[in-house]
Amino acid sequence: MSRDKIIVIDFGGQYNQLVARRVRECNVYCEIYSYKTSLDKIREMNPRGIILTGGPDSCYTEGAARCERELFNLGIPVLGLCYGAQLMMHVLGGHVCKAPVREYGRIEVTIDPSAPLFANVSEHTICWMSHNDYIEKTAPDFQIIAHTNDCPAAAMQCVERNLYAIQFHPEVLHTVEGTKILWNFVRGICGCAGDWRMDAFVANSVEAIRQKVGKGKVLCALSGGVDSSVAAVMLAKAVGDQLTCVFVDHGLLRKREGDEVEEVFGPSGPYDLNFVRVNAQERFYEKLKGIEEPEQKRKIIGEEFIRVFEEEAKKIGTVDFLVQGTIYPDVVESGLGGESSVIKSHHNVGGLPDYVDFKEIIEPLRDLFKDEVRRAGLELGIPEKLVYRQPFPGPGLGIRIVGEVTAEKVHMVQEADAIYREEMAKAGLDKSVGQYFAALTNMRSVGVMGDERTYDYAVALRAVNTVDFMTAEAAELPWEVLGRVASRIVNEVEHVNRVLYDCTGKPPGTIEFE
Ligand code: GLN
User: Fold this and answer.
1) 82 noted as active-site residue
2) Which of 224, 266, 326, 433, by CA, is between 20 and 30 Å from 247?
3) Cis peptide before 393 (omega within 30 of 0)
4) Whether 437 and 491 share a structural domain
5) Does residue 232 belong to any structural domain of this protein?
C-alpha cells in the first residue's frame, strides 16, 4: 500500500518520539530516522514532508549533528523544530549563537496569524521552550513569523521554498496549540491526505500477513500483555489454525490473569487457533529460591521463560514464522530507527529464543505506537478490558515482591492487588489513575490482631499518574479509599499486618519496586 509519509529526522532530542506520535494523531504516517541517514535514502523514501527535531548540540560547534544543505533543495517541505530550526538557519546562511537569555518552560509567543503554519492559531499562544542558543539572524529570504520577549526569531518561514523553522516545541503538550501547528504543516503545507487510519491498517496487515504466510506454520509466544495479544489476534484473523500460541504461565501473573488469557485465546474463546498453556509455576519458584537481588531475579525469569518456550516449540517442530510483538518505540529505543541514544536493547528486538526452528520473524506491530496498538486491538474486536490493561512488567510479580519470591508471597501480593483493584474500580478511579498496584515489601513488623501479637509483612500500595511513563507523580488517592483498601487487605490477606502508601515520584523513584 502506498501512503503519504512524513520523515522525522532525529537529532537526539528528548521529545522525538512525541513528534512522530503527534504527526500520527493527524492521521499521517511517519517514521523516525537518524540525522546520519543519507540524502539518497531520504529521496528514495519519497516523503511528503521532513521534520527536523530538537537536539542537545549547538549547531555552530565542531562535531555537532548536521544535515546537508541539499536537504533543503529537494523540493520537499521541511519543518525545523528547536535544534532543527537553528540548524536550518545555520546551514542556509543565518547566524546562531548563545542566547543572551535562555528560555525554559511555558512562554507566551506572539505569532503572525497569516503564516500558513499558524492558520487558526491564536495570536498570543503558550508554547514550550527549551533552549540555550537562539537565532540571532535568520537565513536570507526568511521572514520572521513569531517572537517572544526574549527571542526575536521564535519562528520563520520561506514560503517559496516551503521551509519553516520554529524555536519552540509543538510536540510537547504544554504547547497549547502545538497539534494544530503540526497539523498545519503535515495536512496543510505538505498536503498529506490524512488516511493513516487503524481500520485500514488492520485490514491491510491481515491481508499482507495472509499473503506472506501462505500455507506456512506460525508460532507466537503469548504473555497476556497488550502487544502480544494484539499481534496474536491479528495473526489468528489472517491464518486461523496455522497459528499456535504458547502461553507460559510463570506463576507471577496477577490474580486470575492466566485464566483470563485462556478464556480469550483458549478453545472456548472466539478465535480459531491452537492454544498451548504451560503451567510452569513450580519451575519458576524453584529457580527463584533464595534469590534476592532484583537484576538476578529478572534474568532468571527471562531466561527460564525462553527455555520453557523453546521446549514447547520443539514439540511443535519446525515452524515457518515466529511472531514478535515488537512495537515502534522498541525499534527506536534499540537504536534501529532514530538517534535518541540506545536506551536499552529491548527484549523483543534482542532476545530471541536460540533453539526455535523458524525461517522468518513476523512483527505485525513494528510500525505502531502503544496507543495505536490499543486502537488496532479494539479494531480487531479484542475486549476493552484486555486492550486497556495497565502496563505489567515481563518478570511480573517477581519484581513486585521485594527480596526472595515464594509461592506464599505470590499469593499474598495477588490477593492484596486484587482487593486494591476492586476498590479502585468501585470508587470509579480505575480509569482516571494512570497505573496502580500492590507490592509486597520485605519488611516484617509487629501488629496486634484479636489481642494477639502478629509479626507479619507490609504491603505497599502504589498509584501514579503519568503521560508517558518516563516521569510520574504519586496519585493523591482519597483517604477513604486508601483506608478501605488497607483494612480489607489486613483483614483478608493472611500474613499481612500493615499497609503503606508510596508517595515517591519518578524520578527519583521508579514506578516498579525492583
Ligand atoms: N541545543 C540547542 C539549544 O540549547 C537546541 C535545544 C533543543 O533542541 N531543545 O538551544
Assistant:
1) yes
2) 433
3) no
4) yes
5) yes
Which pTM value belongs to this model? Answer: 0.76
* Cβ atoms < 10 Å from Cβ of 215: 7
Strand order across the beta sheet in which 78-81 lies: 29-34, 5-10, 49-52, 78-81, 163-166, 155-158, 143-147, 95-111, 124-137
Q: Is the CB of 90 under 6 A from ligand 1?
A: no
Q: Report the separation in Å between the CA atom of 85 and the middle of ligand 1, taken as the mean of its atom positions.
A: 9
Does residue 171 have an active-site annotation? yes
Per cent of the chain over pLDDT 90 is: 74
160 and 216, same domain (yes or no): no
For residues 152 and 232, state if they share a domain.
no
Q: For residues 197, 362, 385 and 237, what is the CA-based torsion angle, rounded to 10 degrees?
A: 80
Q: In the predicted model, what is the mean pLDDT of residues 351-360? A: 65
Task: Single out the residue in 349, 364, 387 at which a domain terminates.
Answer: 387
Is the residue at 24 inside a domain?
yes
Q: Which three cell numbers stand for residue 297?
A: 531475579
For residue 54, the CA-to-ligand 1 centroid distance in Å is 6
Q: Examine the domain organization and report whether 342 and 441 are in the same domain.
A: no
* The predicted structure's pLDDT at residue 354: 59
Share of the chain above pLDDT 70, in %: 94
| pLDDT tens digits along 134-167 | 999 999 999 999 999 999 999 999 999 999 999 9
Task: Decide which of 172, 189, 206 is a domain's last residue.
Answer: 189
Cβ of residue 130 lying under 6 Å from some atom of ligand 1 = yes
- Ligand 1 centroid to 281 CA: how many Å? 50
Question: Could you say which DSSP state residue 168 is in?
Answer: S
pLDDT tens by residue, 410-449: 999 999 999 999 999 999 999 889 899 999 999 999 999 8
**Of 26, 30, 82, 158, which residue is the catalytic one?**
82
Residue 322 shares a structural domain with residue 383:
yes
Number of domains in the chain: 3
Ligand 1 pocket check for 131: Cβ under 6 Å: yes
Average pLDDT for 113-137: 96
CA separation for the pair 150, 173 (Å, rounded): 22
417 and 280, same structural domain? Answer: no
Structural domain range at position 112: 5-189
Q: How many CB atoms lie within 10 A of CB 123?
A: 11
Q: Is the CB of 80 under 6 A from ligand 1?
A: no
User: If you take atom 8 of ligand 1, which residue's CA is the nearest one?
Assistant: 54
Q: Which atom of ligand 1 is nearest to the CA of 133?
A: 10
Q: What is the pLDDT of residue 356?
A: 61
